[in-house]
Design brief:
Number of strands: 11
Oligomer: single chain
Number of helices: 13
CATH class: Alpha Beta
Helix content: 40-55%
CATH architecture: Alpha-Beta Barrel
CATH topology: TIM Barrel
Strand content: 5-15%
Largest sheet: 7 strands, parallel
C-alpha cells in the first residue's frame, strides 16, 4: 500500500498493511533539525517563517516535503497560504480583518476582532475563498502524485466565530444576542462550503475541521450551547464534504468527553489529537467508540517528545498500537503539533517505531 491507501483504509476502520504515520502540524525548527543533514544551507532554526526571505521559504517547503518522504509519513497537511498581510513588525492581518500578534515562535495569536457588535455587521464583507491560497495543497499534490493522502486544515465555526468577535464576547453574545452569534456562524459556514468546492477540484483527500473547543479540564462552552450555536454548522460541513467523497476528521485539543457523543453522531470519520493530559486516554476512547471513529494521536508532545528519551518514545508508540491498533482505525501522530520544543531524535524515534511495530497483522 502507499500512504494514501493506508490512510484511507484506516479511516474506513479497516486494517491496512501498517498503522499509518501522520504529522498533524510541524513548526519551522523541527523541520530544519530533522532535515539539516539532508538539505544544505537551511535557514537558522530559530528564524520564523515570517522573517525568512523568499529563497529561505522555498528551502523550507522543500524541507517539509523531505520530512514526509525521508521518514515515511503517510499523510500531508496543507492549509491556507498567502491570506495574511504583514502590517507591522509583530502583526499580521488575515482576509477576514482579524489582526494577530506574532509570538516569539512566529505563531499568530488573534488580538483584534472586526465584528465585536451587531452594528459591525453592516457593511462588512467576508472574504471569498481564493484558489491562489491553495498553494501548499497544489504543491503537495504535484510532489507526491497520490502516493500520500493530502489533508486540509479548515477552521471550524467556533474558532472562526471567536476570531471575528472575540472569545469572551462570543460567549456573552450566546446569552445576550443569540441571533448575532448565528449570523456570524452562518458566515463561517458559507465561506467554508465555498472553499470546499475549490479543495475538491484541487484533489483533496481528507478534510480536517480544526475547531478547538476545550481545555484540558472541560469544554469552553456547555453541551447545550455547542448543540445550538456551533455543531449544526459543522455538521452541515461534514455532510457536504461526505457528499463530495471526502473523509472528515475533527480536530480539537482538550477534554472532549462531555461532547464526544455529539461528535460521533455528527458523522466524523476520525478524531484528532486525543490529548493525554486532558483525559483522552487512547485505550478508553478506542473501547468507547473505536468502531465508529478512527483515532489519530496521541503521542505526547507536551512532556514526552520534548523531555523523554527515544526509548521512552518507542515504548509509547508500541503501547498506543497495542491499545488501539487492532482491527484498524488508528493513525499515529503526536498529541498536537511537532512544536519548537520537541527533540528531533524523539521525532525520529516516533517515526521509526511506527514502521517497526505497526505492521499488520500486529504481533506485539
Amino acid at each position: 500500500m502507499n500512504g494514501k491507501e493506508r490512510i484511507l483504509t484506516a479511516l474506513s476502520h479497516r486494517e491496512p498493511d501498517r498503522v499509518p504515520l501522520y504529522i498533524h502540524a510541524i513548526n519551522e525548527k523541527p523541520i530544519i533539525l530533522l532535515t539539516r543533514d539532508l538539505i544544505p544551507d537551511l535557514p537558522d532554526p530559530e528564524k520564523t517563517f515570517y522573517d525568512m526571505t523568499d529563497g529561505e521559504k522555498f528551502k523550507m517547503l522543500e524541507a517539509l516535503f523531505v520530512v514526509h518522504e525521508h521518514y515515511g509519513v503517510d499523510g500531508f497537511t496543507a492549509l491556507e497560504f498567502g491570506h495574511e498581510q504583514r502590517i507591522g513588525p509583530e502583526e499580521v492581518r488575515d482576509g477576514w480583518g482579524v489582526v494577530y500578534q506574532l509570538n516569539r515562535f512566529g505563531l499568530p495569536v488573534a488580538r483584534r476582532h472586526p465584528l465585536p457588535e451587531r452594528g459591525d455587521l453592516k457593511g462588512y464583507r467576508p472574504p471569498a475563498p481564493q484558489k491562489e491560497n491553495l498553494l501548499l495543497l497544489l504543491a503537495a499534490k504535484a510532489r507526491f502524485h497520490d502516493q500520500k493522502a493530502v489533508f486540509w486544515m479548515m477552521r471550524g465555526t467556533f474558532v472562526l466565530s471567536w476570531r471575528l468577535c472575540g472569545m469572551e464576547n462570543l460567549m456573552l453574545k450566546m446569552f445576550d444576542d443569540p441571533d448575532f452569534v448565528h449570523r456570524i456562524a452562518q458566515m463561517t459556514f458559507d465561506y467554508n462550503v465555498q472553499m470546499l468546492d475549490l479543495l475538491v477540484e484541487a484533489g483533496l483527500d481528507v478534510l480536517i475541521i480544526e475547531d478547538d473547543i476545550a481545555d484540558k479540564n472541560f469544554p469552553l462552552i456547555s453541551p447545550d450551547q455547542f448543540k445550538e450555536f456551533i455543531n449544526p454548522y459543522n455538521r452541515r460541513l461534514v455532510e457536504a464534504a461526505h457528499k463530495k467523497g471526502l473523509k472528515v476528521i475533527r480536530h480539537s485539543d482538550g477534554n472532549l468527553w462531555p461532547l464526544l457523543d455529539i461528535l460521533i453522531d455528527t458523522g466524523y470519520d476520525g478524531l484528532n489529537p486525543l490529548e493525554p493530559q486532558a483525559g483522552m486516554d487512547l485505550k478508553r476512547v478506542k473501547d468507547y467508540c473505536g468502531d465508529r471513529l478512527c483515532l489519530l494521536g496521541n503521542i505526547d508532545c507536551i512532556e514526552l517528545l520534548p523531555e523523554g528519551s527515544p526509548d521512552e518514545v518507542r515504548a509509547a508508540v508500541r503501547q498506543a498500537i497495542l491499545d488501539a491498533g487492532q482491527g484498524g482505525g488508528l493513525i499515529i501522530c503526536s498529541s498536537n503539533s511537532l512544536h519548537p520544543g520537541v527533540k528531533p531524535e524523539n521525532c525520529r524515534a516516533m517515526f521509526q517505531a511506527v514502521h517497526e511495530y505497526g505492521q499488520y497483522p500486529l504481533r506485539l
